[in-house]
Fold:
Amino acid sequence: DLVSKGNHRHYMLKEIYEQPIVVAQTLRSYLQRMEEQVTLPIPDFDLSAIKRVTIVACGTSFYAGMVAKYWFEQFARVPVDLDVASEFRYRAPVMEEGGLMIVISQSGETADTLAALRHARSEGQKIAAVVNVPTSSMAREADLLLPTHAGPEIGVASTKAFTCQLAVLAALAANLAKAKGRLSEAEEKALVKHLAEAPAALNGALAYDEAIQAMAHVVAAARDVLYLGRGTDYPLALEGALKLKEISYIHAEGYAAGEMKHGPIALIDDAVPVIVIAPSGPLFEKTVSNMQEVQARGGKVILISDYDGIEAAGEGTVATITMPKVHPLIAPLVYAVPVQLLAYHVAVAKGTDVDQPRNLAKSVTVE
Ligand code: G6P
Structure:
């Protein structure tokens, strides 16, 4: 039963909890587990000839695109241009021959994104669409349809569509890398293995739900909240801030952890919770030193990391959220869960209409 709330109080919570299943469902179309390969629907153009990628989307889908930019550049070494759809069309973007535009949209109907798709087509770009509604306008107009299998998403704030978009985009990045001769068989096998671990890791992340609920009051009492992250955790910081704004109406900003010293640090005092998203790994130490700058100014840090990261970060946080230790490729999917749950529980604590937040629409069909 996909469109009832089941045992959950809100659609949003139900959809957060569906993520292990719908991500597995989505990955099933893109991973050949037996052959240890990543595959896509066959495009009617040559992927290996793609010289440049332009990613365009809105809202949460845009942040999925921002994560994907890191992946396309890292794995396929293809330059990526990224923009929100409402800006893209009006800035005379340069789209040379041999370019691929990727639109990302849950609904497949967002007016700005659809207009960007049509503009790119008129400029001779190939179009790939990562959409959740296979009968949507974007799905119909694309050269390459890459469906997410999230099922109907009812909550206005997007959750499961986001993690399914990430799953598809990771598979696309791997395919592009393969087409470009930049992915060895062994590397491909390893990628398949890591991606296939995502559903279990998402379950592991959900296990922290009650603990997140217990700390929600710290954030619910705040007027302003800051989210910090580096690398692919930077888009997650932006997504965390967006989720919180959307459903709890608390002012929140996402920032690249290293950029904090160039402005937002002026806002830090003991009334500002700072959510730091930092799995242990190569970027960890730098982020922790940014975190310490916050602590030194009395900021209330909530650290989201794995056990090793939380150990290494030491004392001085007001709360920690422990995630399973996962490969960096799937970390953005896994860390999306605590970020969603925190926004959810804060909104519930504030008594807002979680599934139908004021002034927002599920799908925005005007430009
Ligand atoms: C609206 C929704 C967001 C969504 C955005 C993009 O603003 O409230 O949750 O991320 O549209 O929608 P799309 O369907 O294109 O992903």
In short: Residues 58-61, 105-107, 110, 113, 156-158, 360, 362-364 surround 6-O-phosphono-alpha-D-glucopyranose (CB under 6 Å). The CA atoms of residues 93 and 120 lie 9 Å apart. The chain has a mean pLDDT of 94. DSSP finds 14 helices and twelve strands in the chain.
